[in-house]
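In this supplementary section we document a worked example of the pipeline. Step one takes a protein sequence of length 200 as its only input; no multiple sequence alignment statistics are reported here. Step two produces a three-dimensional model, which step three serialises into structure tokens for compact storage. The input and output of this example are shown verbatim.
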Amino acid sequence: MSSFRLWILLLLALFSTMACGQSQTVTITEPGVYNIRDLFNTASIVAVVKGLSRDTENYEHDIYKGSIIRSFKGPPIGEVIYFGPFDGERLGWEYVLFLKSDAKPANPKTTVATSYGTVRYSQIFNEGYSSMETSYQCVFPGKEVREQCDHAVRICTDYIKLPKSVPAFSFERNEPPFGCRWARKSTFLSLLETLGGPQK
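The serialised model returned by step three reads:
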């Protein structure tokens, strides 16, 4: 999260508190900086996950239900997992997720049939930067379209440091060297395969 965005959030919280005439404490935390190996080692689950559904009503925070498409660490392909708490994951899309398993299960606030029930829950951590969207992008160098366009993973390289063997690109060639970038999905997943070792 950029410093500018942090200041905006802080000011909005301050104005909201002043408007209500109440005194509140606002805590804003800055994400940590991880190299990809440390991020991998910190996570209990590393996988490509397809978002299936989301419950925004029955738990303390949003919970997503997803299916593991490719596993590098943790549950096998095909297993259903529940994760959160950050808003904004798109249903039907695939994400590379680095998750920490929560010691406590997630319990619904009520016994309504629409909830997932009591589920094992895993957290997206590092202020949301351990969730990486995948999509088809045309940001890569090359003279032909087949070189420029490929399936890609969005990695915020201010907070997730990649080795030189995994170059990342932005839409604008002259953009400053910070913010989020796109890496070729095949290259990034090969790196995760190497970090995880052989999967059964």
